[in-house]
Amino acid sequence: MVILQKILYLCMTANLLNTHFLQVNILLILSNTIWSKETYEWAFRGSGFRNIKWVSPSISQKGIAKYGVLFWKYFLKKSSFVCIECN
Fold first, then answer.
1. Three state DSSP letters for 43-85
2. Domain assignments of the chain as residue spans, ordered by start
3. Closest CA to 86 of 47, 33, 57
4. pTM for the model
5. Helices 37-46 and 2-13: angle between axes, nearest 10 degrees
6. Over the stretch 35-73, which tens digit does the pLDDT of each residue have?
7. What are residue 33's phi and psi, to 5 degrees?
8. Percentage of the chain exceeding pLDDT 90
């Protein structure tokens, strides 16, 4: 019951992010839940992971060569992606 209460609490306190895509007169809205760092670590530790490392998003040289640095600037500054390494 304690785990269920924790999950319900996490759902109520999560931040929501809506991403809008407009292509050929079709609007697609994706709603994502943004959990706190504490929530991610709680979930990973509860799943048996012990070594949790937060990693900043990075762009490969191939991606930079294809689209350029300016293309990725906003993504890197305002990224909503979570990159975690754990074992």
1. HHHHCCCCCEEECCCCCCHHHHHHHCHHHHHHHHHCCCCCCEE
2. 2-86
3. 47
4. 0.56
5. 150
6. 888 888 988 898 899 999 998 888 999 999 999 999 888
7. -100, 130
8. 20
| pLDDT value, residue 81 | 74
Using left for φ > 0, alpha for ψ between -120 and 50, and beta otherwise, residue 68 falls in left
CA dist 10 and 49 (Å) reads: 19
For the CA atoms of 72, 39, 15, 63, the dihedral, rounded to the nearest 10 degrees, stands at 10
Instruction: Encode burial over 22-59: b for 16+ CB neighbours within 10 A, e otherwise.
Output: eeeeeeeeeeeeebeeebebeebeeeeeeeeeeeeeeb
Structure tokens at 1: 């019951």
